[in-house]
Design a protein that fits this description.
Layout (H helix, E strand, L loop, with lengths): L19 H35 L4 H35 L1 H16 L1 H17 L8 H29 L11 H5 L4 H25 L5 H4 L5 H28 L8 H26 L9 H53 L9 H10 L14 H7 L4 H9 L18 H14 L12
Helix pairs in contact: 1-2, 1-5, 1-7, 1-11, 2-3, 2-4, 3-5, 4-5, 5-7, 7-9, 9-10, 10-11, 12-15, 14-15
């Protein structure tokens, strides 16, 4: 990653409460637990509305939709509770990135809480008004559809923010939520997420409605356990197959800086589990009615393995994408700590800034924002400059007054209209600083 023109803030100089690896594991594990119930909540809400539409002509599906609403509120509560853990862990481990993305999406980000509250109230009304609005199905469906639309919009906000925090090079281009929404990878990831909601919810509904204690015979007129099993297996199979098709689009719209052979291996492992899961589901769909259901537990196990691989792969990519920027931010934080220590030293020893040599003062006030002794910022290091202009401070003065672009990927240096004696003093200071006897800036600088 070329860090020129990329915002590199300093980090918060506080120790992490636990080891970084532990926080990373917490994020992955708690997020997986949270996303399962998000899938069930959102997928259940979508199923309820779609099945109610089908139920306008086939009454059993209206009954099925109403039964599904009983699961939504429970899954909603678990999704909210389990979402606290990964959110706190992300705040601790990726503080600067997470809050930068939040600030860039502004009002839309802070609307999440009221949106969720409104969606939950609408879905409660949708659930408990089923009989009262039995003769006003269009109104009832509109209510459910509106609740589902809000629930779909909320994870889109989260996803655009999590996507944005990974790419500091895009921060200067973003002008609010809409521009963040159209960055590469947002919509492919959202499609993949919605398909996951459908697949996970279908398998959950299969287990819920075909379990031994559920009164299928008294609830439905034409649907029995084999029919329900085949229905939900078919939905899960189709959604998973579409996920496999969308997966390469998700992967190849990611910026390249986070991609690695290890990431490909992790994602490939998850895809292999998904293919095995598809094969078992297809077998279940084709199996005679009396013997279907034998592979449900292996299918769920493969689903867990697939989700775990994809969740871990997401983390691997996040770490890879942020690695260079995080190292630069750590260096910037160290630079800030050094500057603070130097200022304290000057204050403790009664050294005023004006007492510093002219070249040192000009370098500190003008040049240090782009040049350091051994590290490239937006300009070359002082050692590199000293190699080009060895024993030639006047050459540095001439360049400073009329610079030109020499390196692609870095901004052109602006001309400095300063007195020649100042430019000569700073040139001599830089050459002296890079001389072999000098290892770095002295504390009083």
């Amino acid at each position: 990653m070329i860090l020129a023109n990329i915002p590199v803030p300093h980090d918060i100089p506080l120790p992490l409460p636990v080891d970084r690896v532990i926080l990373q594991a917490v994020i992955v594990l708690l997020f997986l637990a949270h996303i399962v119930f998000i899938n069930l909540m959102l997928g259940g809400a979508m199923f309820a509305v779609v099945f109610e539409c089908i139920g306008l002509k086939r009454r059993d599906f209206d009954t099925l939709a109403r039964e599904i609403t009983h699961t939504i509120t429970v899954n909603k509560s678990l999704a909210v509770v389990l979402g606290v853990g990964p959110l706190l862990a992300i705040n601790v481990l990726y503080t600067v990135y997470f809050y930068s993305a939040n600030a860039l999406t502004g009002y839309v980000w802070i609307s999440i809480v009221p949106l969720v509250a409104v969606a939950f109230l609408i879905l409660y009304a949708y659930k408990y008004s089923w009989e009262r609005l039995a003769n006003r199905k269009k109104l009832h469906l509109a209510m459910g559809g509106f609740g589902v639309a809000i629930l779909l919009f909320v994870p889109l906000i989260f996803l655009s923010n999590i996507n944005l925090m990974l790419f500091p090079d895009r921060w200067t281009q973003v002008r609010g939520f809409l521009s963040a929404l159209w960055l590469p990878n947002v919509w492919p990831r959202f499609l993949h997420f919605v398909l996951a909601c459908v697949a996970v919810s279908a398998l959950f509904m299969l287990a819920y409605f075909t379990r031994a204690g559920y009164p299928v015979e008294t609830k439905f007129q034409g649907l029995d356990r084999p029919n329900l099993r085949r229905l939900f297996y078919g939905i899960a199979f189709g959604a998973t197959l579409l996920q496999l098709a969308a997966g390469p689009l998700v992967l190849f719209t990611l910026p390249a800086q986070g991609l690695s052979v290890f990431l490909y291996a992790v994602i490939g492992t998850g895809a292999a589990f998904a293919v095995a899961m598809l094969a078992l589901m297809w077998w279940e769909i084709l199996t005679p009615r009396q013997t279907a259901g034998r592979f449900f537990v292996p299918i769920v196990a493969l689903l867990i393995l697939t989700g775990s691989a994809m969740g871990f792969g997401r983390h691997v990519y996040r770490e890879g994408a942020l690695r260079d920027h995080r190292l630069a931010m750590e260096q910037r934080t160290q630079d800030l700590a050094y500057a603070a220590a130097a200022a304290k030293w000057r204050a403790d020893h009664g050294v005023a800034v004006e007492d510093l040599p002219l070249g040192q003062r000009v370098f500190r006030d003008v040049c240090s924002s782009c040049h350091m002794l051994d590290r490239v910022l937006t300009g070359p290091s002082i050692r590199e400059i000293a190699e080009l202009y060895k024993d030639d401070p006047d050459g540095i003065v001439r360049w400073t007054k009329a610079p030109t672009r020499k390196r692609t990927g870095f901004p052109a240096m602006p001309a400095f209209d300063r007195p020649t004696e100042q430019l000569r003093a700073v040139a001599e200071y830089m050459l002296e600083l890079a001389a072999p006897k000098k290892e770095g800036l002295s504390p009083e600088s």
